[in-house]
Design a protein that fits this description.
The complex is a heterotrimer of chains A (536), B (94) and C (206). Chain A has 536 residues and is an all-alpha fold. Chain A contains 17 helices and no strands. In chain A, α3 runs antiparallel to α17 and α13 packs parallel to α16. Classes of the chains: A mainly alpha (536), B mainly alpha (94), C mainly alpha (206).
């Protein structure tokens, strides 16, 4: 192809020189791919520090009694672990990294609609992260409220809640602006012929996510502002001693934080769809069912927040209403799992690393989803509420879901981002070790919760010892797998590159351009004349 | 470039809308100063909503702009209403 | 080959994208205030009598005056957009200046309204407020918080409108290019929209 030859003259986005060179060339770049990578590097740093905190907590729990830390340290640690993982890794996660890297390319655009706003969002993200992190070291110690900041304890504790909440507020603002940018981009910058119904499913999931970011995040923003006002000005909003209602705080918090789960999981589902399609070499089963279920998850997910509060003292009417809507949201999620497996049927399956990650995702997501139904039913929830069962459940969904999809996406698009190929065999070994460790780490917690071990304690009764040891050993195995995966990718980055633009025979637009892509992605804006996944 | 047809609203229409809005404000004050029992709040909220719709349609051009803005605004307001309604499933029955 | 990081974004401008972006931002703002309206309605539902008694501390004439001020200023912004579409620069400038003047008047009124409360020892964190009954306390907390945040939005709106005014004056905003003015106007109407609900909720409780 003559076009391929021309690409060689254009420097790719990793190499080109703008007004500034070196690091400044990245920090001032409005190129969506560079911004995506900057999110990626920042996020991996936070993720790994969160992992270390998790390891420390698991080590504390290896046997009853105090091992390496006391109660207050443990309280600070699970709060900071939660804050880091939720606000700095999984909520921006797949959307900010892979959405930024590939959304414009997948719809045939040169960049997002507001490139400078995009860079501004990244700076807000970093600013929020710095504030959250410094809150751990300044003032009177790390917040010990849990990442939920439940009133009235968050209003009374002497620890550094105001700083942490301010950081979370800024991170929310960053998230809103990213969502806004993506929505406008999809409305305005689709290439000629790229109709709404021709967008890859990943774009549709980002569309749903964008709306949730836009409509849910401000609610928690204002709630955090109220907490700050209450702590600094001494006025009452949620403090029962001043007439406030702490349950109202929980309502407002979960009005955001439940949809936030869908901010994390929807783009992850989009990634899995892309991978399932590419590695089955067959178009997706039920394109419209896939996008309708994405929108349905985004929409219904907005009204289920109360299932976090079944034991908080809500009215019983509210409880069954929330329980009912919670079961409704299982339907579109199940449609997705059904469609992924149906996509495999009669496909010519290509057994490669991203595909294995996607299968791993489906497995852990199913376990997470089913345990979610246990928590969504009123009677069983009361039994396992605030136990290790809940911890196991949301790690299967949040870490198992978003985390697996994140690494699936990384392995899927790695050759496109860097123009390098990683060692597939080592990647697979790392994945298997990671997968085994993951299940050893979290599955015993289901059992522990069922038999009554509460969450958020640094100590436990002696009869819980054996499953806890299994879980701690699992955490070591999982981290070993994680390290193998990361080191393998780092080595590939240094290795020699092969000129492969389409290693997996993908049909979406990013596989039609050079690896790594050039500055504005396309030599010429493509004209799209086929459906999203055009396998003959 | 804007593909939307630019509908230019005459000055007179803006002043007419303004007159309507101010009249509605005065009516609200009047209505809430007489005794209607529980209907006072309802009346005040209905009038406020009417005023909000007028502002959205005329001052914010929803009436003349591309339909997409109207659709999006309606959906957002409905979602918010649903959130309020569901919150009150708790407080009404506690 | 020349490649710069900054210029490629400006090669083509897209007014419609800017407008969609502004509307999406307005939705975010609606939900931001929406969260506070939820808090307000829950607490009013739980403390009807206290809210009724507390609201009598607020002056209806001042609230009414401020409502009319904001409504007029919304109309003048709308007029300025019509004017710029007709290339009637003079009317656009005058109506924008009137808008800014009215916005300032609104803030001055607010200052005196709050100032009078402060003089009586009624401000967030004061002894007087801490000793109030629960319902009254919640009413005034919400009053200061919601009208305060609204005032912040007024100030942001004034900044946007001042920039628009400046650009109308030097011709950067004209009948072929007025997205900034249009979007600033949308933002200003949002500020008005919120006040339309704040006024009856705080001043006109029966």
């Amino acid at each position: 192809m003559t076009e391929q030859k021309e690409h060689k003259h254009e420097p790719n986005f990793l190499e080109y020189q703008g007004k500034h060179r070196g690091l400044m060339g990245w920090l001032t770049s409005t190129d969506h791919k560079r911004i995506g990578l900057m999110y990626f590097y920042a996020m991996m740093t936070f993720f790994l520090s969160g992992v270390i905190m998790g390891l420390l907590m698991k080590f504390e729990l290896i046997s009853p009694g105090q091992q390496i830390m006391g109660a207050q340290t443990y309280n600070g640690l699970f709060t900071v672990h939660g804050l880091t993982m939720i606000f700095l890794f999984v909520i921006p996660g797949v959307a900010a990294v892979f959405g930024n890297l590939f959304l414009p390319i997948m719809i045939g655009a040169k960049d997002v609609s507001f490139p400078r706003l995009n860079l501004f969002s990244w700076y807000l993200y970093i600013l929020g992260a710095i504030i959250v992190i410094t809150s751990q070291f300044m003032g009177s110690g790390p917040p010990d409220t849990g990442w939920t900041f439940y009133a009235p304890y968050s209003l009374k504790t002497n620890t550094n809640v105001v700083a942490a909440v301010t950081g979370a507020f800024i991170l929310g603002f960053s998230s809103i602006l990213t969502g806004l940018n993506f929505l406008v981009t999809m409305h305005r910058l689709r290439a000629p012929g790229m109709g709404w119904m021709r967008m890859p499913i990943f774009c549709w999931t980002l569309y749903g996510t964008g709306w949730i970011q836009l409509l849910a995040t401000p609610v928690v923003g204002i709630t955090f502002l109220m907490v700050i006002a209450e702590r600094t000005l001494g006025i009452g909003f949620f403090d029962p001693a001043l007439g406030g209602d702490p349950i109202l705080y929980q309502h407002l918090f979960w009005i955001y934080s439940h949809p936030a789960v869908y901010i994390m999981i929807l783009p992850a589902m989009g990634v899995i769809t892309e991978i399932m399609v590419t590695f089955s070499r067959k178009t997706v089963f039920g394109y419209s069912a896939m996008l309708v279920s994405s929108m349905a998850i985004a929409f219904v997910g907005y009204f289920v927040w109360g299932h976090h509060m079944f034991t908080s003292g809500m009215s019983s009417t509210a409880r069954w209403v929330f329980s009912f809507i919670t079961f409704l949201v299982a339907i579109p999620s199940a449609i997705k799992v059904f469609n992924w497996t149906a996509t495999l049927y009669k496909g010519s399956i290509n057994l490669q690393t991203p595909f294995f990650w996607a299968l791993g995702f489906i497995f852990v997501f199913m376990i997470g989803g089913f345990s979610g139904l246990v928590l969504g039913s009123l009677a069983t929830d009361i039994h396992v509420h605030d136990t290790a069962f809940v911890v196991a459940h949301f790690h299967y969904i949040v870490f198992g879901g978003t985390g697996f999809a994140f690494f699936a996406a990384l392995h899927y698009w790695y050759p496109k981002i860097y123009g390098k190929v990683y060692n597939g065999k080592i990647a697979n070994i790392g994945l298997v070790i990671f997968f085994i460790g993951f299940n050893l780490l979290y599955f015993p917690m289901f059992y522990l919760g069922m038999v009554g071990m509460p969450r958020r304690y640094y100590d436990y009764l002696p009869q819980f010892t054996t499953p806890n040891i299994i879980s701690t050993v699992g955490s070591w195995i999982m981290v070993t797998g994680l390290l193998i995966v990361i080191i393998n990718l780092l080595k590939a980055r240094k290795g020699s590159g092969k000129e492969i633009n389409d290693p997996w025979d993908g049909k979406t637009l990013e596989w039609t351009i050079a690896s790594p892509p050039i500055l504005e992605n396309f030599e010429e804006i493509p004209v799209v004349d086929h459906e999203a996944y055009d396998y003959k | 470039m804007s593909e939307d047809k630019n509908h230019i609203v005459p000055y007179k229409d803006h002043l007419l809308v303004l007159f309507l809005l101010i009249s509605l404000t005065v009516i609200t004050v009047a209505v809430t100063s007489i005794e209607l029992g529980p209907y006072n709040t309802a009346a005040a909220m209905v009038i406020a909503s009417v005023k909000a719709v007028i502002v959205l349609l005329y001052f914010m051009h929803l009436k003349f702009d591309n339909k997409i803005y109207k659709i999006m605004t309606t959906i957002v307001l409905m979602i918010f209403a649903a959130v309020v309604l569901i919150t009150f499933f708790d407080y009404l029955y506690r | 080959m020349e490649n710069t990081t900054t210029h490629h974004a400006d090669l083509h401008r897209d007014d419609t994208a800017a407008k969609i972006g502004m509307w999406l931002f307005i939705f975010t703002e609606i939900l931001l205030f929406g969260g506070m309206f939820i808090v307000y309605s829950v607490y009013r539902f739980r403390n009807p009598v206290a809210f009724h008694l507390a609201h009598e501390e607020l002056s209806i004439p001042i609230g009414l005056l401020n409502t009319v001020i904001l409504l007029v200023s919304s109309a003048t912004v709308a007029i300025s957009i019509s004017a710029i579409q007709k290339s009637d620069k003079k009317v656009a400038l005058i109506s924008l200046m009137i808008t800014l003047l009215l916005a300032l008047t609104f803030l001055v009124n607010k200052y005196f309204e709050w100032g009078a409360k402060f003089e009586h020892g009624m401000y967030p964190g004061s002894e007087l407020m801490k000793n109030l009954g629960h319902g009254d306390m919640l009413f005034f907390s919400l009053y200061f918080f919601m009208t305060g945040l609204h005032a912040v939005h007024i100030i942001v709106g004034m900044v946007l409108l001042s920039v628009s005014l400046y650009k109308v004056n030097n011709g950067a905003i004209n009948s072929g290019r007025y997205a900034l003015l249009e979007n600033s106007g949308l933002y200003w109407h949002l500020v008005d929209l919120i006040w339309i609900f704040l006024f009856p909720l705080f001043y006109l409780i029966h």
